[in-house]
Amino acid sequence: MMPNITIVMGQQLQCPCLALGLELDCAEIVGPNPTFTNRGAIAIRSIKTGIADHQQEDPLSNDDIEKLKKLVENDGEYRIRISSKAAAGTRYVSSFTKACGLYESGLTDTLTVHMDPSSNLIGVSITTPSPYCLGLSTPMERLFDFNTTVEVIQTVPGPTPETQFFVEKMERERAEKTKGQQQDNRSFLGKYWMYIVPLLIVVMLANNADPNAQGGGSGGGGR
Amino acid sequence: MRNGEIVWRQIQEKSDSGRIDDMILLDNSLVAVMGGGSYLRCFSVTSGVLNWEFNAEVPDLNQRSRIAFLTMNEKKKIIVMLTANTVYGFDISGRLQWKEDLPNSDKVKYGYLKVDENAINIIGVTMKSHVVIITMDTEGTMLPKYSAPAAWIQDGTRCQFSGDQFVCLDVDNRIVHQLSLQKPEIFRSSLFQDLKISCNDPQLMNDVSDGHQREFGIRCLSSSNRGDAVVLRASEDGIKLVKELSGVTALQVVRYGEQDVFITMARSKPELYGIIKKKDNSPVFRMIALSQDDSVVLLQQTGKLTWVREEALSKVVAIDMIDLPVSPMLAKMEDEFGTNSNDIFGMLINRLTTQFVQIQDFFFQILNHFKSHRHSYYDGDHGNDYMSDDDTDEDDDDYLFRDEFNIRKIIILASEVGKVCGLYSPSGRILWCHLLPDMAPFEAAGKHLYTISMQRTTSHFPHDPYCTIMGKHKDSGLGMMYRFNPVSGLQVANTPPGGEVLNYRIKQMIMLSHMDDHFIRPLVILDTDLKFHVYPESTTDLVKSLADSLFIMTTDTVTSQLYGYSMVYSDDKGLTAEEVWNLNLAIESQRITNIVFKQPLEHVHSQGIVLADRSVSYKYLNPNLVVITAEGSDSSQKGFVNVYLVDSVSGQLVFHCNHKRVKGPVHVVHSENWIVYDYWNQRHRRTEIAVLELYEGKKQNNATAFSSLYPPPIPLVLRQAYIISAHVSTMAVTITEKGITNKHLLLALETGAILEMQKALLDPRRPDVPTQEHREEGIIPYVPELPRHNEAVINYNRSVYNVRAIHTAPAGLESHSIILCYGLDIFYTRVMPSKMFDVLKEDFDYFFIGSVTLGMIIVSLLSKKLAARKALNRAWK
Questions:
Q1: What pLDDT was estimated at residue A127?
Q2: ipTM
Q3: Where do the structural domains in chain B lie, given as residue ranges?
Q4: What's the rounded Cα separation, in Å, for the pair A120 and B99?
Q5: Whose CA is closest to B176, among B184, B162, B164, B250?
Q6: pLDDT digits (tens, 9 = 90+) for B215-231
Q7: Would you tell me which residues 754-793 of chain B have a C-beta closer than 8 angstroms to some C-beta of chain A?
Q8: Is the pLDDT of residue B712 over 50?
Q9: What CATH architecture is B1-151?
Q10: Is there a contact between A157 and B768 if contact means CB atoms under 8 Å apart?
């Protein structure tokens, strides 16, 4: 039993230019050449916000559930494959998780789809909420339908040196500095008048007082 | 010449334009032509100074250019250079005298040049069609050209001049073709049978002749892998057999006076090319030979070896460092705890004997100490020339044992030609060397590499350490391995000396960190048929027990696909690999250039960093994380670099980012929770260094162990980029025993310097506007350009060029990290990133501290006694 998810993108897209189809297959048979069956489709509404839906094809049959249980007993891996049909050809990526995690959480999983800036599919990973196998058994009614959350992650631009900001910061600092200097220049006379004026007065007084002092001196000498 | 030391060295461009095509020695200068004629440079022989240089426009860098000189008379000499489409004539001071374009240079490959007294002969070849002969006079005017049909001529056909004949060897049909330069109309052919020679795999031998000799040699490979050679003479009348030689691997014909002399070399294994230098006027020869194992040998006529240089050490492709074994005494002590026998009396006797030996050794040591003290007084006059300090070590019998702080190591090098050497790290002395003639390195992402796996380290006495080097077979491409003891260099029992050829091709290999009962780490090899092989086979059971948790990742660099496999064991098929995940990185013709794992030896001391608000940001420490970089160019020919962080077990893409308008080469350093890489920014024309740091956040998912199958949520990636005003040729990071010491980056620059830079400068959290909290944490404010202090250059004036990689290893002291740079040169040193925090300073006052402590103890005892007495007296009252 091989569920197959088709990721269909571009139905309610904000950017109509991105129209590509992705298919997702899942394998539950362990072996060198697993056969994948259709599990469903993923509709990506917007890559930027990472909103996407998973639409299941059919509920799992009893046969499928038996296979899943057997896989859990053997502590096997549940594998998924996702494909996108682009102009350049079909791209496949695949991932796996422990089957017991999927079983014990009642078919709850999270698919993370990775895409490059021009929306080429590069990778996928599947995680389940309870990663550790506790050996619980799950009621049958929870094993018919997948409860899947899909996240889309796109390649982010790499870091670049923040020269612009730094230059601005430097300029701001320099401007402040020059501003401070200008203030200083402008207020030089005004700022120090209280020192300069008394000094001048003292000098003037000293000049005026000089003859007096001399007189005093000479007078003293005369005594 | 006398002792084999390099007098001068000029380093040429790394790319194709720096490849030396041809060289001539002219009086006191050496003229070399490089990169298909893009550069013609003249150096002074004695000093190596560049006298003059000429740049030519060359359509194809890969075609070899030729050079020759023309003696017109005593004063006037002309240097003739042949490139793919033009002939140039220069005088001795580098002035262009004349220049002549060659006809039909797009079809005809001009590759042969011979200069006579008054004519220049140029021969061009059109594959499978004909040969064009152009003759010029000394002024560069072209005389009528001839063409001779030669339908047999192919890409690999080797030809040469021999006197006034042009001789070609047709290997497939065993025919020697000759063309007279006087009457160049038609080739005259001589069959091997007619010459009465029988020869397998014939080869022309005169590789470095100037074409004036009349004889030439042909090397034959006979079945016993020993070369035979024949010497033939070409003349107007045809080709004549001059001499047949057996057991010859190299042959050189030189013209000495009016006579042609040929010199042969016979040796069973290495292939030798001989260049003979004439000494004065006496017919005494000295010979320089370059052998297959990349060593250069100078021999005298008597066959005496004057010197040997191991040039293989400039082409190192794989490296590892191992600790020296502990001394026998320590080993015996450890042995006592290691054994699990229950014989009490035996153990008692063992203990007593070891202790007796210890006492004995102690006395000997004291005696030796006194002796060496006296000895060192004599030594003091010699000065501390650190290049020759190994002499003192060699006197010591136990120099191959571990020192107190485990700073001395054995360096294992594997060179491109398949030579494995062991070097003693303090002196760089070669301890042993072993040539694996059939081994060739793997090629991955444009790099050549061998893998050296330390399967058993030196710390498991009495078991010998052993090491495995893996490569591929030169011709068949099958896997090859050679197992040896890294200390002695001897091969491990039942390993053939040339290495063991495996009957499959290696796709991927991994050494597990688990050890079996004999402390051997199993080597798991995945072949191209997806079957696992375990070495040594005795450890297969251990691997089987771990099969459930073993995953392996392979990268297909051609299709840019990544595959993850899990190991499956079944009784009928054995250990096989099963594909569990794949990633498709084939975007816009990008190709994968780096696949960088973490260093397996690395210890991370702290699980997180403490922020200013006293909360902890936990590091994302995924031991299976691998950094993959891919380079390519988009539709408008602008380069880009993509960086992917992949969990190699689960195939989870942890993070991926993209740099536009940049190009490689990208060098990656991957350590702890951070990744540093550099690239060339095409728009701003500068080298930038980017840093990524990964954090789990304020909460740790699983504090005890990391599991890729149950991964924590996608980590927080902090990122920042910086500018560095230098070209980086490679990068590495220091590594220490316990990981407590700060990390420093080591950048090998194109200028020959090795720059040590603290990691704190490359912190992505460096703030634009620092706040009080940042200051409290000690984060440096953001400055886009990284400082390049001259004090941070750790190799001072010992420049190292074309550094291929830097290897770092921990020492026994936490503060020390050992580094080894290799490329054209090998440079070894140790660095202390956090200074010597765990070593007492030299001026530490032992006496003062000791006396103070002693005084305190006495005072405390006295006061206790006095206090007791006082209490007693009070009680009596």
A1: 84
A2: 0.71
A3: 1-151, 402-503, 512-584, 845-877
A4: 54
A5: B162
A6: 566 655 544 444 556 66
A7: 764, 768-769, 782-784
A8: yes
A9: 7 Propeller (2.130)
A10: no
